[in-house]
TrEMBL record:
Enzyme class: transferase
Predominant localisation class: cytoplasm
KW Transferase (keyword) present: yes
Keywords: Aminotransferase, Cytoplasm, Glutamine amidotransferase, Repeat, Transferase
Active-site residues, as the UniProt record annotates them: K360 (for fru-6p isomerization activity)
Listed GO biological process terms: amino sugar biosynthetic process; carbohydrate metabolic process; fructose 6-phosphate metabolic process; protein N-linked glycosylation; UDP-N-acetylglucosamine metabolic process
Its EC number(s): 2.6.1.16
Name of this chain's protein: Glutamine--fructose-6-phosphate aminotransferase [isomerizing]
Gene Ontology molecular-function annotations: carbohydrate derivative binding; glutamine-fructose-6-phosphate transaminase (isomerizing) activity
Length: 365
């Protein structure tokens, strides 16, 4: 398939803006009324005792996010690992294990090797891929497409949110099959998901405000990202994106780890991006934020209106997103993570779609 930039300055900008459309398309491919359609064979989680998820890069952060969903919604124990570590550690895989591989390209060498390691050990091999005819898809018992369409930008954007979408659908289905949620609750989760593309479109209108913050942020030498719970993997993804395309050193920490090291770095020269919708963990994150501000740190808070009102006036900059149900927040908060990196890179004049030293698909070890 030939794809062009459709009037956008970069593929990355186009792929970010496309997210409401591709997410809506993916949902209509998977949803059939109040049922989730995983294909003819279906997807049964009733006998699953644990899930082992393996991936690289951005796909790995999608797995880290999904761990919260599978554990909290479905009560399913989840292990997540980086493919290059997993494959050489000889991890014991016991019966009852479903192995799940997430890969945009379906060709990442380490992820494929990890899959092959699990081949005769796990009960079954599942994958979540963007390229349906890829090696990882072919070698899986069931490959679930994310329906993101061709992604050209080296830094993954729409593939990430589309991976999250499929992983959340799987977690909802697992929760239902395992009797952890009722049919009514399942229908509510699906209705929430269906509202997401519209909410995402509203959030895209924050583009200019995010660009302003990004321009200030990339002046810094180091940037710290903080998040708790579902926002922790998002913080990791935000830091990765910034490193990848704007070449600014960025690190992410779980907010609760701030005291265990990174707080030593805080001064007025290190912007701290805090991802925190007003959810059940918000107050804890606010106290971490106050620790940063008390040391002269500049907080860039990404939150919703309620969070902005509760955060106080000391915050350096606030990006306000629409309110979403807690479980959906990672899909929406991916957007500011992407746009901060994108506009930061544009301001610095880097090669956004082809960042130095990076490849779209790493097919050699
Ligand atoms: C490369 C790409 C990343 C991607 C990672 C995993 O590093 O630059 O964007 O997240 O590979 O790729 P995969 O195709 O397995 O998702």
């Amino acid at each position: 398939t030939r794809v062009d930039k459709a009037g956008y300055r970069h593929f990355m900008a186009k792929e970010i803006a496309e997210q409401p459309t591709v997410l809506a398309g993916a949902l209509s491919a998977y949803l059939d009324g109040d049922d989730i359609d995983f294909g003819e064979a279906g997807l049964d989680f009733t006998g699953t005792e644990r899930l082992t998820m393996v991936a690289c890069g951005t796909a790995y952060y999608a797995c880290l996010t999904a761990k919260y969903w599978f554990e909290r919604l479905a009560g399913l124990p989840v292990e997540v690992d980086i493919a290059s570590e997993f494959r050489y550690r000889e991890p014991p895989i016991t019966s009852g294990t479903t192995a799940l591989f997430v890969s945009q390209s379906g060709e990442t060498a380490d992820t494929l090797a990890a899959l092959r390691y699990c081949r005769d050990k796990a009960d079954r091999i599942l994958s979540v891929v963007n390229v349906d005819e890829s090696s990882i898809a072919r070698e899986s018992d069931l490959a679930l497409p994310i329906h993101a369409g061709v992604e050209v930008g080296v830094a993954s954007t729409k593939a990430f949110t589309c991976q999250l979408n499929v992983l959340l659908l799987m977690a909802i289905e697992a929760a239902f099959q395992r009797g952890r949620i009722t049919a009514k609750e399942k229908a509510q989760h699906l209705a929430d998901l269906r509202s997401l593309p519209g909410i995402f479109n509203v959030a895209l209108e924050r583009d200019e405000i995010i660009a302003d913050s990004a321009r200030d942020m990339v002046e810094a030498r180091d940037v710290l990202f903080l998040g708790r719970g579902l926002m922790y993997p998002l913080a990791l993804e935000g830091a990765l994106k910034l490193k990848e395309i704007s070449y600014v050193h960025a690190e992410a920490y779980a907010s609760g780890e701030l005291k265990h090291g990174p707080i030593a770095l805080i001064d007025a020269s290190v912007p701290v991006v805090v991802m925190a919708p007003r959810d059940s963990l918000f107050d804890k994150t606010v106290s971490n934020m106050q620790e940063v501000m008390a040391r002269g740190g500049n907080v860039l808070l990404v939150t919703d209106a309620a969070g902005a009102a509760a955060a106080g006036s000391e915050v350096w900059r606030t990006i306000i997103l629409p309110e979403v149900p807690e479980m959906l927040a990672p899909l929406l908060y991916a957007l500011p993570a992407q746009l901060l990196a994108y506009h930061g890179a544009v301001a610095k004049g880097t090669d956004v779609d082809q960042p130095r030293n990076l490849a779209k698909s790493v097919t050699v070890e």
